[in-house]
C-alpha cells in the first residue's frame, strides 16, 4: 500500500514519543521507507536506537554530527520526503515552524522541504488551548500544513481533556489517505446512515437496529477518494468522521428534507440509512400513562425517500440498500425498478455476520441492467470500497 513511499518522521519531546515507535512499525509493515529525525528532547523519552532498529535507517538528531556519508543531510531528507510527518508534535515545534525558526535538524529540514507536512500534536490541554498555540496552528493551516486532530481523554500528566495524540492506527490511516487515488475529486456525494426514530410521546419512540456503520464506512471511503461528502445521519453511537459535514436528523421526514437541500447539486446519493417506514399517527404531548389492557398505536406511512428521489433524479447516481429477511434478490430487483435506482446493495439481515450492527456484511449487488454480483463476507470498509468502485464506473 505504501511501497516506494518515503516518509520522513519527526519525533519531538513529548510523552507520546513512545507511540511514534508504533507509527514507524505500522508504516514499515505497509512497505514505506521511513527516515526518523528526532529532536534532542525526544531522545530523553525514546532512544534513537529504537527508531533505528524499526525503521532500518540511521536516525538523525544532531545537525552538526560527523556525516555517515557525504551529503547535506537536512537537504537530502527534505528532498527525499514524499510526506513529512511530525508525531508527536510539541507546542514548541509548532511554534518554531510557525515563526520561521530553524535551529536544529528537524526544524531546518521541515523548513527546506516541499513535501506535505502533517503534524500530530500532543500536549497538555491548557497548552493545546493556549491562544498562542492556537494562533500558531491556524497560521500553519492557512499556509497548507495539516494537523491530525488530537483526541480527548486522560493525558499522561493526569489531566483530562483535549491534547492526547491521535492513535497510531489513525495517524497511519491519515497518511494512507494521501496516497489513495483521488478518484472522486470534484464529486459531491450525499450518504445517509443509521436508523431514524419516531416519537410516540415525550419519553418513548420507535426505531430499528441499524447501527449506521455501513453508511459511515462509505462516507469515510468517499472522503478518502477526494469527494465532497455530506453524511446525513440518524441517531448512532459512531464518532463524527473528520473532514465530513454531518447533518444529524431524527425522523424519516427530517432525513428526506435534509437530502432535498442538496439533491440538485449532488452527483451521487447513497442511501445506506434504514429510515422508518411508519410513524405514529399522533404524537402525544404528554407521557402516555400505563393502563390495564393493551395499548393500540396507529402507525401511518412515512414517505419513501428512495422512490421520492428516484422520481426527481436527473444526472444523479442513486444507490439503494435492501436489508431483507426473505426473497432478498426478488425484492431488490423490484426496488430497483420502482425507485429508479442505478444499483442496489442487497443483504439478508437474518444471516450471521451480515447486516445491522455487525462489523461485516455479505452482500449482493444488482444493477439496473440485471447484472447480479455476489460478494463473500467482508468488512463494511471493504464493501464500501466495492460500492464506490461501482459508482466510479458509472460516473466515468
Ligand atoms: C515529562 C515531560 C513531558 C512532556 N510532554 C510534552 C508534551 O506532550 N507536549 C509538549 O508540547 N511538550 C511536552 N514537554 C515539554 C517539551 O519537552 C519541551 O517544550 C521541549 O522544549 C520540546 O522540545 P522539542 O519540541 O524540540 O522536542 C514535556 C516535558 C517533559 C519533561
TrEMBL record:
InterPro entries: CoaB-like_sf, CoaBC, DNA/pantothenate-metab_flavo_C, Flavin_trans-like, Flavoprotein. Residues 186-393 form the DNA/pantothenate metabolism flavoprotein C-terminal domain. Gene3D superfamilies: CoaB-like, Flavin prenyltransferase-like. Residues 6-176 form the Flavoprotein domain. The keyword Flavoprotein applies. It comes from the Bacteria. Keywords: Decarboxylase, Flavoprotein, FMN, Ligase, Lyase, Magnesium, Metal-binding, Multifunctional enzyme. One of its GO terms (cellular component) is phosphopantothenoylcysteine decarboxylase complex. Its cofactor is FMN; Mg(2+). GO terms for biological process: coenzyme A biosynthetic process; pantothenate catabolic process. The active site is at residue 157. CTP binds at residues 277, 287, 303-306, 321, 335, 339. Its EC number is 4.1.1.36, 6.3.2.5. It catalyses: (R)-4'-phosphopantothenate + L-cysteine + CTP = N-[(R)-4-phosphopantothenoyl]-L-cysteine + CMP + diphosphate + H(+); N-[(R)-4-phosphopantothenoyl]-L-cysteine + H(+) = (R)-4'-phosphopantetheine + CO2. One of its GO terms (molecular function) is metal ion binding. Pathway: Cofactor biosynthesis; coenzyme A biosynthesis; CoA from (R)-pantothenate: step 3/5; Cofactor biosynthesis; coenzyme A biosynthesis; CoA from (R)-pantothenate: step 2/5. Residues 189-396 are annotated as: Phosphopantothenate--cysteine ligase. HAMAP family: CoaBC. PANTHER family: HOMO-OLIGOMERIC FLAVIN CONTAINING CYS DECARBOXYLASE FAMILY, PHOSPHOPANTOTHENOYLCYSTEINE DECARBOXYLASE. Catalyzes two steps in the biosynthesis of coenzyme A. In the first step cysteine is conjugated to 4'-phosphopantothenate to form 4-phosphopantothenoylcysteine, in the latter compound is decarboxylated to form 4'-phosphopantotheine. In the N-terminal section; belongs to the HFCD (homo-oligomeric flavin containing Cys decarboxylase) superfamily. This is Coenzyme A biosynthesis bifunctional protein CoaBC.
Amino acid at each position: 500500500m505504501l511501497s516506494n513511499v518515503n516518509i520522513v518522521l519527526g519525533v519531538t519531546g513529548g510523552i507520546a514519543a513512545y507511540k511514534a515507535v508504533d507509527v514507524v512499525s505500522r508504516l514499515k509493515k505497509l512497505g514505506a521507507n521511513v527516515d526518523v529525525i528526532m529532536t534532542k528532547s525526544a531522545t530523553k523519552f525514546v532512544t534513537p536506537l529504537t527508531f533505528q532498529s524499526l525503521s532500518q535507517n540511521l536516525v538523525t538528531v544532531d545537525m552538526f554530527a560527523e556525516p555517515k556519508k557525504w551529503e547535506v543531510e537536512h537537504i537530502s531528507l527534505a528532498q527525499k520526503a514524499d510526506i513529512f510527518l511530525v508525531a508527536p508534535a510539541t507546542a514548541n515545534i509548532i511554534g518554531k515552524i510557525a515563526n520561521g525558526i530553524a535551529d536544529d535538524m528537524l526544524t531546518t529540514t521541515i523548513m527546506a522541504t516541499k513535501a506535505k507536512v502533517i503534524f500530530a500534536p500532543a500536549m497538555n490541554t491548557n497548552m493545546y488551548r493556549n491562544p498562542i498555540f492556537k494562533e500558531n496552528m491556524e497560521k500553519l493551516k492557512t499556509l497548507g500544513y495539516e494537523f491530525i486532530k488530537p483526541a480527548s481523554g486522560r493525558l499522561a500528566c493526569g489531566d483530562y481533556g483535549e491534547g492526547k495524540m491521535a492513535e497510531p492506527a489513525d495517524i497511519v490511516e491519515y497518511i494512507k489517505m494521501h496516497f489513495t487515488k483521488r478518484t472522486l475529486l470534484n464529486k459531491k456525494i450525499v450518504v445517509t446512515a443509521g436508523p431514524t426514530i419516531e416519537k410516540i410521546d415525550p419519553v418513548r419512540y420507535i426505531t430499528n437496529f441499524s447501527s449506521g456503520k455501513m453508511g459511515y464506512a462509505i462516507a469515510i471511503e468517499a472522503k478518502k477518494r477526494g469527494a465532497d461528502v455530506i453524511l446525513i445521519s440518524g441517531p448512532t453511537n459512531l464518532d463524527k468522521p473528520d473532514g465530513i459535514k454531518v447533518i444529524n436528523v431524527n425522523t424519516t421526514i427530517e432525513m428526506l428534507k435534509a437530502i432535498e437541500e442538496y439533491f440538485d447539486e449532488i452527483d451521487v446519493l447513497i442511501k445506506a440509512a434504514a429510515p422508518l417506514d411508519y410513524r405514529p399517527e399522533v404524537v402525544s404531548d404528554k407521557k402516555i400513562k400505563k393502563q390495564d389492557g393493551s395499548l393500540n398505536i396507529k402507525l401511518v406511512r412515512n414517505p419513501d425517500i428512495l422512490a421520492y428521489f428516484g422520481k426527481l433524479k436527473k444526472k444523479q447516481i442513486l444507490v439503494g440498500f435492501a436489508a431483507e429477511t426473505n426473497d432478498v434478490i426478488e425484492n431488490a430487483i423490484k426496488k430497483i425498478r420502482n425507485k429508479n435506482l442505478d444499483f442496489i446493495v442487497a443483504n439478508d439481515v437474518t444471516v450471521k455476520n451480515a447486516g445491522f450492527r455487525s462489523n461485516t456484511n455479505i452482500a449482493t449487488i444488482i444493477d439496473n441492467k440485471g447484472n447480479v454480483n455476489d460478494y463473500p463476507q467482508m468488512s463494511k470498509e471493504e464493501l464500501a470500497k466495492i460500492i464506490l468502485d461501482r459508482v466510479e464506473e458509472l460516473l466515468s
